User: Fold this.
Amino acid sequence: MNRYRLPAVLTALLAAALAVVVPAAPAAAHTELKSTSPAAKSTTTKPVTEVTLTFTGLVRKPGTTVAVTGPDKTSYSVGDPEVLDRTITQKVDPLAVGVITVAWTTAASDGHEMKGTFTFTNRAAPPTPSAEPSPSPSVAPTTAAPPPAATTAAASPVADEDSSSGAVWWVVGAAAVLLVAGTGGLLWRRRKAGGAP
Assistant:
């Protein structure tokens, strides 16, 4: 009898072990949040431009949200979160100084929904906006006066032409006077010679 009872006992023990191990396997395979950047309950002194969540398994983009709020309850999330394999990245505006709260929701590849919240402290002051330069008054363009040399140069040919014309008339007049005087003297000499005895 003992020879037949031993296999039955071993079978019962194996079945009990499987009953304990098999239901626990799916629970152990569930995806969970592994780490964050900035880390939960940490203090950062450098400007934060994005918040990153890393999981132990693959996560889905549909239904994924990440809300980043400051101590003034203002949302600093920019756009939708980016999902890549096991990582969720949420871009943020420059954060206010104080405790920052991150509330997230997502789903694992098997459809298991997850959500959670963590906080970190920001010590990096947001950049101060620079003052815009005031527009300089516009100056109306001025019309440059023509250089005086141009007027002088334009008037010079006229003056030279008048001077040349005056000189020509003086020469003609002098020649006419000489011609008349020479003719008169010649006639006077002929008359004088003809009247001589």
In short: The CA atoms of residues 97 and 122 lie 5 Å apart. The chain has a mean pLDDT of 78.
